[in-house]
Each structure stands twice: as C-alpha cells, then as structure tokens.
Amino acid sequence: MSTRRALAQQLGVVAGFDSPRTDLEQYPTPPEVAASIVHVADTQGDIVDATVLDLGTGTGMLALGTALRGAERVVGVDLDRVALSTARQNERRVGARTTVEWCCGDATNPPLCPSGPTTVLMNPPFGAQDGNEHADREFLAAAASLADVSYSVHNEGSRAFVESFAADNAGEVTHAFAAELDLDRQFPFHESKTHTVDAEVFRIEWAGDD
C-alpha cells in the first residue's frame, strides 16, 4: 500500500474542470483530500475486493484514487459528458492498474445494480446554489440504496444532519474527520483568487435490506 502522501502526489496530475457548471456545483476535490479519503477507506478494508462507485465523479479524482489502490471494479457516474471526457484523459495520466468505467447518468439515481461488497465515495454538491438545496441528501439516499459503506464530503457543521439521515435509513456513522478544500476562483461570483472551504467527511455503514 502506498502512503497517503504518495497517493496525493499521484493524483496531482488530475486536471480540473475546463468549464465548471454552477448548477452542478462543480468544484474539484483537492488531491490531498481525495488521498485522505481513499487512504482511510483502504485501511478500513473498503477498497480491495470491492466495487467502488464515485457518484458525481466530475473529472474523476476519487474514482482514480481508488483505482490506484487496487479496487476490483471502479465506476464513475456523472451527468456532465464534458467532465467525463476530462476524467478519461485523467485516467490515462494517472495510469492505474484498475480500469475505470465512466457512466453518464444521474448520480442520485444511477443505472447501476452492483453485486458483492460495494463502497460509494462522493463529494456531492453542498446545496449552496438556489434551486439546488438539499442536493447532498439525494446523494446520500443513492448511497444508502447501493452501498454497504459510503464516504461523503459535506459542509462543516453537517454532522447532526448526516447522523440523522443515516439513522433513518438503516445506516450508522462510524468515522468522521475534518477536511479543508482549498479551491481556486472559478466562478464570477467568487471574490478572491483562492478560498478555503471547511468540510467534514463521514464514513457510513448501511445495513440495507439484509
């Protein structure tokens, strides 16, 4: 197993969005944050021998991180065909041993029915844009229906909401840790060249219908 730092360096070649969409709240997941999430998932036994789904994959950062860590199968789902084209290019840049399947579709209702151990990794929209409120709730619902375990990034202060949602959907938050998303200016309404978003990452075990 490579170190978290080595994984972050490998993911440093992943290109971001050429034309980010505000309606989808397309922000890149920093390689250091992606490496931390994937590293924790790997140490918990949630990567190797599992199908990993990256819901709202964007340009593929989390999917590629798990592919580099040797997941059995990796699928990245996103509505944006342009972002998926960049993700395919990023796959070639990274050179992971596991081939990633890129699926164009609604990440909150993906056309997937995985079998065997399934892990969802995702950095969903926080619901900050008008008309996009509670977007992360829809992503969590998708994870609950598909996964044995999920890792998701949420705005700071979301723990009560995530724990309540998990409890209502046969899930339990087992791990939580803080993350800082250092983001470059990419939308006209951003006032500074860079800004930091304080976030939290949650690992949830889903009981499903078993």
| Distance between the first and last residues' Cα | 32 Å
Secondary-structure-based class equals: alpha/beta
Order of helices and strands: HHEHEHEEHEHEE
Number of strands: 7
Average of per-residue pLDDT values: 89
H/I helix tally: 6
General shape = globular
Gyration radius (Cα, Å) is: 16 Å
Measured by DSSP, the beta-strand proportion falls in 25-35%
Low-confidence stretches: none
Describe the 3D structure.
There is one protein chain. With 210 residues, the chain is α/β, with parallel strands linked by helices. Helix content is 31%, strand content 26%. The longest helix is centred in the middle third of the chain and has 14 residues, at 81-94. The protein starts with a helix and ends with a strand.
Key features of this structure:
210 residues, alpha/beta, seven-stranded mixed β-sheet
